[in-house]
Specification:
Distance between the termini: 70 Å
Helix content: 25-40%
C-alpha cells in the first residue's frame, strides 16, 4: 500500500507540475523559432518585458536602476520566466482534473504575450503577435498530450496493487512510461526548436557584426582639440578623462539590443518648418563633414555620487548643419517647431529643444566613439547626442527618424511618464577616492574625484571634513567645455570616523546646493559625501 501512496503523490503533484513546466518550455522554444520569421523583438519574453518597462512607474524604474544597475533587464527577464514557471506548474496541476480548462489557460497566457508584442511602440503590426500565439498553441497542445497520460483515475492503480492485477471493470492506471517518453520527446523537440531559432537569430546578428566591422570611419573635417596636458590626474580609482567603451554606462529600455546592418540604415528628417525633407543613409552621413568632440554624457537616473556619467570622444555630423540644410529655423528666428523628436528602431522617442540643438553647441548624429564605430550597446550605426542635456532628452540610440514638432503637440516617451520636458544637466561632483567606509591610515590621504557642468564648465571644487571649513581642491587642467573635470585634495587625516563632502561651482558662479532631491523629474541634486574610518 505504501508504493501506491507514493505513486498517487507523484501523480497528483510532481508529474503534473512537470507537465506544466514542459508545456511552458515548448511555448518558449517554438516562439523563439517563429520569431525568426517575424523579428527577434516579437518574442514573448522580450515583448512582455518591454511592455512591463513601458508601464512601470518612473519611481520603480529608478529603484531598479539603483539596485541592479545595468543588470536590471536581466532581473526583469528572470522575473518574467519565474512567473511563467509558476503559472505553468499551476496549469499542469489543474490539467489533472480540468484538462481543457488548463490547456485554454496556457493559450490565454500566450495571448498576453501577443497583446504585449502588438502594443509596443516599435511594433510592426499584428504579425508581431504570431510568435506568442503559435508558441502558446503548441504549449497548450503539449499540456493536453502530457496530461492525458496522467488523467486516468488513481483508484485503478491502487486496486491493481492490492490484488496483484487490474480490477474487473476498472480502467488501467496512469501511463507513467508513456508520460516519460512523451515528456522526453517533447522536451527534445522544443530544445531543437529553441536552439534553431537562436542560431538563426544569431545569423542576423552576425550580419550586423560584419557590417560594423566593415565600417571605415573617415578623418573628421573638424578634429577634436588635443586635450591639455594634465587633464587626467591618473589617480587610482578616479574615473579617467576618457571612458573606455566597455566601461561607458548604459541605461535604456531595450531588452534586446538592436543589431542593425549599416547598409540598410535609413533616417528621415521631416516635420514643421522643414522646407526640404531629408532621407539619409549611412553612406550619406560618412560623406558629409564630420566633427570630432570630447563630450561627457549623464543619465538623469544618476543619483548624487552615482556611476551613470561617462566621457568619450565622439565622431559625427553636426545636427545644426542638417537642420539648416532642411530649411529649419530655431524659434528665436521665427521657426514654428520648438521640439525635435528623435525615434529609435526600438520605438523609443526622445524630445530635444530645437533652440538648444541649434545654438552652436556640438549636437550631433554620432557614428563613432573613441576611434571606432559605435558599439551596438551605444547605438550603432547612428545615435544622437546633445551636450549639456540629460540623455533622456537628447541621446537617442539606434535612431531612424527626426521630426520637427512642438512640445504642446507631442510628449516624448519619458515626458509621458512624468519626467520634465526640458532637462539641462545640473552641476555635480563626486568623490571617487577614498571609497565609502574605507580605512586609510592617518596622515596624508588623497581625496579625489570628478565634477561636471557640461556646456558651462567647472570653476572650483571644494572639500569639507565633518563640519570644518571648506577647503579648495586642486583642479586638473581644463578640457573642452562639454567634459567633466578631475580634482584632488591632500587631506591631513586624523584617526577616527569622518565624513567627507564635496561641492562644485560652475563658470556661472552657481554652487551645488546641499538640498537633496530625487532624480524625478529633472535630475538629482545635492552634495556627495562618504564616511571613512581613519586608523
Amino acid at each position: 500500500m505504501a508504493v501506491s501512496t507514493r505513486g498517487k503523490s507523484a501523480i497528483t503533484g510532481t508529474l503534473p507540475a512537470l507537465s506544466g513546466l514542459v508545456a511552458g518550455y515548448v511555448a518558449l522554444g517554438v516562439a523563439e523559432l517563429v520569431s525568426v520569421a517575424v523579428r527577434p523583438e516579437a518574442g514573448p519574453v522580450t515583448a512582455v518585458g518591454g511592455a512591463a518597462i513601458d508601464r512601470t512607474p518612473s519611481g520603480v524604474k529608478d529603484w531598479a536602476i539603483r539596485q541592479f544597475g545595468t543588470n536590471d533587464k536581466l532581473v526583469l527577464q528572470l522575473g518574467i520566466l519565474a512567473v511563467l514557471a509558476v503559472f505553468a506548474v499551476a496549469m499542469g496541476v489543474l490539467a489533472l482534473h480540468r484538462r481543457r480548462t488548463a490547456t485554454a489557460g496556457v493559450f490565454a497566457f500566450g495571448l498576453v504575450g501577443a497583446l504585449a508584442a502588438v502594443s509596443r511602440p516599435d511594433s510592426t503590426g499584428s504579425v508581431d503577435a504570431v510568435p506568442s500565439l503559435v508558441g502558446a498553441l503548441c504549449g497548450a497542445g503539449a499540456l493536453y498530450l502530457l496530461s492525458g497520460f496522467l488523467s486516468t483515475p488513481v483508484a485503478a492503480e491502487v486496486g491493481a496493487a492490492a490484488t496483484g492485477g487490474p480490477q474487473r471493470g476498472s480502467t488501467e492506471g496512469p501511463n507513467r512510461r508513456g508520460f516519460v517518453l512523451a515528456t522526453a520527446g517533447v522536451a527534445v523537440a522544443s530544445t531543437a526548436a529553441g536552439l534553431t531559432g537562436r542560431r538563426l537569430n544569431a545569423t542576423t546578428a552576425a550580419e550586423a557584426e560584419a557590417s560594423r566591422a566593415a565600417v571605415r570611419l573617415p578623418t573628421p573635417s573638424s578634429p577634436a582639440p588635443t586635450p591639455a596636458r594634465g587633464v587626467d590626474l591618473r589617480i587610482r580609482d578616479v574615473a579617467p578623462f576618457t571612458t573606455p567603451n566597455r566601461d561607458f554606462y548604459r541605461v535604456d529600455t531595450a531588452l534586446k539590443v538592436p543589431r542593425m546592418d549599416a547598409d540598410r540604415w535609413r533616417m528621415r528628417l521631416h516635420g514643421k518648418g522643414v522646407g526640404e525633407p531629408l532621407a539619409l543613409d549611412f553612406r550619406d552621413l560618412l560623406q558629409r563633414d564630420l566633427i570630432e568632440r570630447d563630450i561627457t554624457m549623464t543619465c538623469v537616473s544618476n543619483e548624487v555620487g552615482g556611476p551613470y556619467v561617462s566621457s568619450a570622444r565622439w565622431l559625427g555630423v553636426r545636427l545644426k548643419d542638417l537642420l539648416e540644410e532642411a530649411g529649419v529655423r530655431p524659434p528665436s528666428q521665427g521657426g514654428p517647431a520648438d521640439q525635435l523628436v528623435a525615434r529609435s528602431v526600438d520605438g523609443m522617442t526622445i524630445g530635444s529643444p530645437v533652440e538648444t540643438v541649434m545654438d552652436g553647441r556640438d549636437a550631433m548624429l554620432a557614428v563613432g566613439m573613441n576611434g571606432e564605430p559605435l558599439p551596438f550597446d551605444h547605438g550603432f550605426p547612428v545615435r544622437m547626442l546633445v551636450p549639456g542635456l540629460y540623455g533622456y532628452v537628447s541621446a537617442c540610440k539606434w535612431i531612424q527618424d527626426l521630426e520637427l514638432t512642438t512640445f504642446d503637440d507631442y510628449d516624448a516617451y519619458w515626458v509621458q511618464r512624468d519626467w520634465a520636458r526640458e532637462a539641462p544637466i545640473k552641476t555635480q561632483s563626486r568623490i571617487d577616492t577614498p571609497k565609502p567606509f574605507a580605512r586609510p591610515a592617518a596622515g596624508r590621504v588623497v581625496v579625489a574625484g570628478v565634477a561636471w557642468a557640461q556646456h558651462t564648465g567647472i570653476d572650483r571644487v571644494e572639500v569639507r571634513v565633518d563640519d570644518e571649513p571648506w577647503q579648495e581642491a586642486e583642479l586638473a587642467a581644463e578640457g573642452p567645455l562639454d567634459t567633466w573635470r578631475q580634482w584632488s585634495w591632500q587631506w591631513p587625516a586624523t584617526a577616527g570616523s569622518h565624513t567627507l563632502q564635496v561641492r562644485a561651482t560652475d563658470r556661472t558662479g552657481t554652487t551645488q546646493t546641499d538640498r537633496r532631491t530625487r532624480t524625478i523629474p529633472d535630475g538629482a541634486s545635492g552634495r556627495h559625501s562618504v564616511v571613512v574610518n581613519v586608523t
